[in-house]
């Protein structure tokens, strides 16, 4: 929608000023004499706001670059010099009071509550005024008509003063600084319609058009509230990443003492003690201890990785099984997790270009319509000299060209499409994603948890001796490792096995004694150590007895249902298919070969996935990213549009535009089909709205339409748009959607699996 800079009190510059020491401490050193300071600007709403802030701050001495993130309302300023520029004072002068951006803030913006209250007031007033107007239009007696007009005026006044102040404050803020925005013509139209209606009410006129002013406020507030919801959803994904970082860590001092320090106070070189179950606070190197780490945030793979002295660890990874001592190699602000947060915020900021296009289109519409109404008024004044008739015709022009049909053209189709997708087990989190889905010409898949279910499957269980398989399964039941859980399900529990001296070795495997013999289940080089078959073993999972090989276990990942048919369907549709994974090259290429995917990239870090998507975008590709892991969140946010299964991590679901609730990967082509149909209907709706205005506007300008007829025509155009959108809900004969109870069960089950 439009911008909404906030008027400032007289002492705003004094309030906005902060000590240079505080600004310097809040900045981040980027190297080469360049520093960055992040500000929070709650008043940022649209492209005009972004342009005003970026151009205004860029003029300050020392400022090298300014970028505004519309989703998070974050202003990133890069500057050079010994002291920071007066950024907060400059922001206050521009009309956008700001404060230092706090990355750990988790407070809901109070503007959402204000918008909801304003929307409720506008909806209540406009609907009731419309009901009263129907009675007046139906031929009410003069006394009844006058009473209804006064009641309508009484209802319209609080709507204008309370709900309309969102637009009036923005318009005034722009005008007092010599600028204009979309809210200026909107405010003029609202005031004009209310003023003439009040004049006619006072003079017992036959008609009043309070519903025009209040309905316009109501529809515009719907759009602004939906925008705010989208921004909050973008912030939720970033906050989910932030929650992976611990608030502090235990630091080991040189004198043997221990201190618990906030994570922002940890410096490179500090020694940190981690117990099992704690997350790594900053990037570092293992100094002492052996453990398993859950590195899903880095690689996207569910299998734990071994951590031993000398191994690098990343912030946000989870220490699973043993105590570790690590040496910090970076500050929290420069850690892997902080980089992921910045990647997501940058991606969300880039996505704002779609809203900016909509802003420019909407901003163009209102000035044209109001200019037409003004010219109509002046023309009729020159022709007839009757100011009341002239302004009545001008209001009819405003009403008949009210952007209700244009405003409904997209959202009504999105609502119907969202319903259709939900009936197919697909949740739509962002209505604009349906439009972006229809534009894709390439699809990038993650592997584990996306093309596969992320659950390993034992493929050679039938070739292993039953006795050896029973022993392995009994030992595996004592471990929580994903491969152990798979082995444990391969054989029925053997009640006669009395295991003793059970011990799990993090990163290696688990051992136990049975009948005086030592059995080991785990990595081959460890399980067979010291035995005759152990010298040449360099990988794989085996069962060993006193160093002798008893059984070797082969695993493969289970493909997600309909994976092959989905890839074939997308390829047949002319889409470019790419596989981007953090897993090992061998595992990735094996999956790609089974699905016939040629373009493959393995062992990718999250930032590298984003780079691959950026490279595809630079070639003109509009990419759908399908992923599920923590490490996929920046890529999901950076892609043109994104999907994730309900089994994905919370962050992945938050970052994705679509979430499919069932196991089948056929949700991808199904969503694409619905999105393309929705795109066609949106274009048809725009054509209907434009055709309506092309026919109605000349008739209204010619004076052949009263405000009453104009209101009816405006309603008819909206009905046509809605009826056309409902065509998307028509189903081919013989096909039925699942019953509502089944869809509810699918939703509950899939979301529970995701947790």
Automatic annotation (TrEMBL):
CC annotations in GO: plasma membrane
Signal peptide feature range: none
Predominant location: membrane
CDD domains per the UniProt record, alphabetical: HMA, P-type_ATPase_FixI-like
TM helices/strands, residue ranges: 118-138, 150-172, 184-202, 208-226, 361-381, 393-417, 686-702, 708-726
SUPFAM superfamilies: Calcium ATPase, transduction domain A (SSF81653), Calcium ATPase, transmembrane domain M (SSF81665), HAD-like (SSF56784), HMA, heavy metal-associated domain (SSF55008)
Every HMA domain range: 35-99
Keywords recorded for this protein, A-Z: ATP-binding, Cell membrane, Ion transport, Magnesium, Membrane, Metal-binding, Nucleotide-binding, Phosphoprotein, Translocase, Transmembrane, Transmembrane helix, Transport
Recorded GO MF terms: ATP binding; ATP hydrolysis activity; copper ion binding; P-type divalent copper transporter activity
Subcellular location: Cell membrane
Family from the record: Belongs to the cation transport ATPase (P-type) (TC 3.A.3) family. Type IB subfamily.
Protein name, entry field: Cu2+-exporting ATPase
């Amino acid at each position: 929608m439009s911008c909404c800079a906030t008027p400032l009190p007289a002492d705003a510059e004094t309030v906005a000023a902060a000590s240079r020491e505080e600004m310097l401490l809040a900045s981040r050193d980027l190297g080469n004499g360049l520093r960055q300071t992040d500000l929070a600007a709650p008043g940022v709403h649209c492209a005009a706001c972004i342009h005003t802030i970026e151009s205004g701050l860029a003029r300050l001495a020392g400022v090298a670059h300014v970028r505004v993130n519309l989703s998070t309302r974050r202003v990133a300023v890069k500057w050079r010099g010994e002291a920071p520029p007066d950024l907060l004072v400059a922001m206050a002068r521009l009309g956008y009071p700001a404060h230092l951006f706090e990355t750990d803030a988790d407070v809901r913006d109070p503007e959402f509550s204000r918008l909801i209250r304003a929307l409720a007031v506008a909806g209540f007033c406009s609907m009731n005024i419309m009901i009263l107007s129907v009675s007046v239009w139906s031929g009410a007696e003069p006394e009844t008509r006058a009473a209804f007009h006064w009641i309508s005026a009484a209802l319209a006044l609080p709507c204008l003063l309370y709900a309309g102040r969102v637009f009036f404050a923005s318009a005034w803020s722009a005008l007092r600084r010599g600028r204009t925005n979309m809210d200026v013509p909107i405010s003029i139209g609202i005031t004009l319609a209310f003023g003439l209606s009040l004049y006619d009410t006072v003079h017992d006129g036959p008609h009043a058009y309070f519903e025009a002013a209040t309905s316009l406020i109501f529809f515009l507030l719907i759009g602004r509230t939906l925008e705010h919801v989208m921004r909050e959803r973008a912030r939720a994904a970033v906050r989910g990443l932030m929650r992976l970082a611990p608030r502090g860590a235990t630091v080991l001092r040189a004198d043997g003492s221990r201190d618990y320090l906030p994570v922002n106070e940890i410096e490179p070189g500090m020694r940190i003690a981690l117990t099992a179950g704690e997350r790594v606070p900053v990037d570092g190197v293992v100094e002492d201890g052996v453990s398993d780490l859950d590195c899903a945030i880095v690689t996207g793979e569910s299998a734990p990785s071994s951590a031993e002295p000398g191994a690098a660890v990343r912030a946000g990874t989870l220490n699973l099984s043993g105590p570790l001592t690590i040496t910090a190699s970076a500050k929290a602000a420069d850690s892997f997790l902080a980089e992921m947060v910045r990647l997501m915020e940058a991606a969300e900021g880039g996505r704002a270009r779609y809203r900016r296009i909509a802003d420019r289109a909407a901003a163009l519409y209102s000035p044209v319509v109001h200019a037409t109404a003004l010219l109509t008024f002046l023309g009729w004044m020159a022709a007839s000299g009757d100011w009341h008739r002239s302004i009545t015709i001008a209001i009819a022009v405003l009403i008949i060209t009210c952007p209700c049909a244009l405003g409904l053209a997209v959202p009504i189709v999105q609502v119907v499409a969202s319903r259709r997708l939900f009936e197919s087990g697909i949740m739509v989190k962002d209505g604009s994603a349906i439009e972006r889905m229809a534009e894709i010409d390439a699809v990038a898949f993650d592997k584990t948890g996306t093309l596969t279910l992320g659950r390993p499957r034992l493929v050679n269980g039938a070739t292993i001796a039953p006795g050896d398989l029973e022993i392995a399964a009994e030992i595996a039941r004592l471990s929580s490792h994903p491969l152990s859980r798979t082995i444990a399900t391969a054989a029925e529990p053997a009640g006669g096995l009395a295991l003793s001296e059970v011990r799990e070795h993090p990163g290696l495997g688990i051992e136990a004694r049975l009948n005086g013999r030592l059995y080991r289940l785990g990595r081959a080089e460890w399980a067979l150590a010291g035995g005759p078959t152990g010298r040449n073993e360099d990988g794989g999972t085996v069962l060993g007895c006193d160093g002798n090989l008893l059984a070797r276990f082969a695993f493969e990942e289970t493909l997600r249902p309909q994976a092959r048919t989905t890839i074939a369907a997308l390829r047949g549709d002319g889409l470019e298919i790419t596989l981007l994974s953090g897993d090992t090259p061998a595992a990735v290429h094996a999956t790609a070969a089974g699905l016939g995917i040629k373009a493959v990239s393995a062992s990718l870090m999250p930032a590298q996935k984003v780079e691959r998507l950026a490279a595809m975008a630079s070639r003109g590709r509009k990419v759908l990213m399908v992923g599920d892991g923590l490490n996929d969140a920046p890529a999901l946010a950076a892609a043109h549009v994104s999907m994730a299964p309900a089994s994905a991590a919370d962050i992945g679901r938050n970052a994705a535009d679509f979430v499919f609730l069932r196991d089948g990967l056929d949700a991808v082509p199904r969503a694409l089909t619905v999105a393309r149909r929705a795109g066609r209907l949106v274009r048809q709706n725009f054509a209907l709205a434009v055709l309506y205005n092309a026919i109605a506007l000349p008739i209204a300008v010619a004076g052949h339409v009263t405000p009453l007829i104009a209101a009816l025509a405006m309603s008819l155009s909206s009905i046509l748009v809605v009826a056309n959108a409902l065509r998307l809900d028509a189903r081919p004969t013989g096909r039925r959607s699942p019953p509502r109870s089944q869809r509810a069960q699918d939703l509950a089950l899939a979301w529970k699996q995701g947790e």
